From TrEMBL:
GO terms for molecular function: ATP binding; ATP hydrolysis activity; copper ion binding; P-type divalent copper transporter activity. This is Copper-transporting ATPase. PANTHER family: ATP7, ISOFORM B, P-TYPE CU(+) TRANSPORTER. It is found in: Membrane. Probably involved in copper export. Keywords: Hydrolase, Membrane, Translocase, Transmembrane, Transmembrane helix. It comes from Helicobacter pylori. GO terms for cellular component: membrane. Its main location: membrane.
Length: 318
């Protein structure tokens, strides 16, 4: 009653890859979805909206520092920088920034919150945009203001998931204003901002129930492991290794389709079990009382299997 429906469900959509059939069943039982913002709800390309220079600096230093960690914001800034990279020393990675030494200078790049924690005097306030600052010897040299755009179908997909009774919650390392604006546009009431990877993992591990995590950034690795089931887009190297379910195109509608298929398969599995129980509950006592000859009884058992197979095949047409 169960394997046939699961096999059809796992291979139903070639753009949704389940690493194990078990993950399809788990996905059907999910009540809450934790979802990353940057690159998941928003487009993969971040646009540089404004660059403010406070002090002149060697662009090679910033380029070399940004190159040490993959991030959508870093990619946008790197397009404006030229020259060869230099050899940095003592590179340190933080949740919201990077630190390195070059000769006798200390270099910092990251969010305003990170720079402030490192003792840099910030001359700007947070906004709904992503803001990345570069500092040298605790002096702010430049501020990059970057704009994110929601994926074209993000609002429709979120609405469809909510209509299925699923609760969504955004987990993001970006600033409060940026995450709040994104949540407002998508109609998501719960969100968290300024999170470290450990913060994300802690929030998910504290949830009592079956939950899913959707993300593909480097900061999502710990959170993906804590969720009951995890989903990510295949183009991310992290998704290939850390996620239980891979979405092979950068199309957010695949997320809704994955949940839809899982719920339909689970319904059919339950139907098959009920059909088998009812069928056997009626025919076995009748056969035991001698009202059916052995040949008809054996054919009836095959008919029971055929019934659940035919019911499962409905999944191919739905």
């Amino acid at each position: 009653a169960t394997p046939i429906a699961l096999v059809i469900g796992v291979f139903k959509n070639p753009l949704i890859v389940f690493k194990e059939a078990l993950f399809l069943e788990t996905l059907a039982k999910v009540k809450k979805i934790f979802i990353d913002k940057t690159g998941t709800l928003t487009q993969k390309e971040v646009l540089l909206k404004e660059k403010i220079i406070y002090e002149e600096f060697d662009g090679r230093l910033l380029k070399s520092l940004l190159k040490t960690k993959e991030h959508l914001a870093h990619n946008a800034i790197l397009k404006t920088l030229h020259g060869d990279e230099v050899n940095l020393e003592k590179i340190e990675f933080f949740a919201h920034g990077l630190k390195a030494n070059y000769q006798n200078e200390t270099l910092l790049v990251g969010s305003l919150k990170f720079l402030n924690a490192m003792g840099v005097n910030i001359k700007a306030k947070e906004s709904a945009n992503i803001m990345v600052g570069f500092a040298k010897n605790k002096t702010l040299c430049a501020l990059f203001i970057l704009e994110e755009r929601l994926k074209a179908n993000a609002k429709e997909v979120i609405q469809a998931l909510q209509n299925k009774g699923l609760e969504l919650e955004i987990l993001s390392g970006d600033n409060e204003s940026s995450v709040k604006e994104c949540a407002k546009k998508l109609g998501i009431s719960k969100y968290h901002a300024n999170l470290t990877p450990e913060d994300k993992a802690q929030i998910i591990s504290s949830y009592k129930g079956v939950c899913a995590m959707v993300g593909d950034g480097n900061n999502d690795a710990l959170a993906l492991k804590q969720a009951s089931v995890s989903l990510g887009f295949e183009k991310s190297a992290l998704s290939k290794s850390a996620c239980d379910i891979l979405l092979l195109e950068e199309d957010l509608s695949l997320l809704e389709k994955a949940f839809h298929n899982a719920q339909k398969v689970y319904q059919v599995v339950l139907q098959n079990i009920v059909l088998s129980l009812i069928y056997n509950a009626i025919l076995i006592p009748v056969a035991m009382l001698g009202y059916i000859n052995p040949l008809i009884a054996s054919l009836s058992m095959s008919a029971s299997s055929l019934l659940v197979v035919l019911n499962s095949l409905r999944l191919k047409r739905s």
